[in-house]
Amino acid sequence: QVQLVDSGGRSVQAGGSLRLSCAASGLTFSNYIMGWFRQAPGKEREFVSGISYSGIRTNYADSVKDRFTISRDNAKSTVYLQMNSLKPEDTAVYYCAAKTGGSIGGLDYKYWGQGTQVTVSE
Known about the structure:
Order of helices and strands: EEEEEEEEEEE
Low-confidence stretches: none
Strand content: over 45%
Mean pLDDT: 96
Distance between the termini: 40 Å
Number of strands: 11
Shape: globular
Radius of gyration: 13 Å
Largest sheet: 7 strands, mixed
């Protein structure tokens, strides 16, 4: 079965950096659009970033543009989210997700990881 395993989340001070990883199995990774989402306590899940099948096209939420970078390694079936200049408002559980078609953004992803906690302190 399809499995997405998120990792890399931890506590960090504001201004710091983190790299999240999401390892996929049970699917042909290069056939899937990949995305990162986050959900803060008391808030709805929101789109953070997405990447096309080959990695040529990417999309970012305005709140993370110029700070976060999404990338993928199809040979390793892994998608990454490099997060720089972290802010306390970036604190959330981060989820990777996969879908086979449609736009990079949106919530209509089919498969979801279990989430990894990112906590940014002042």
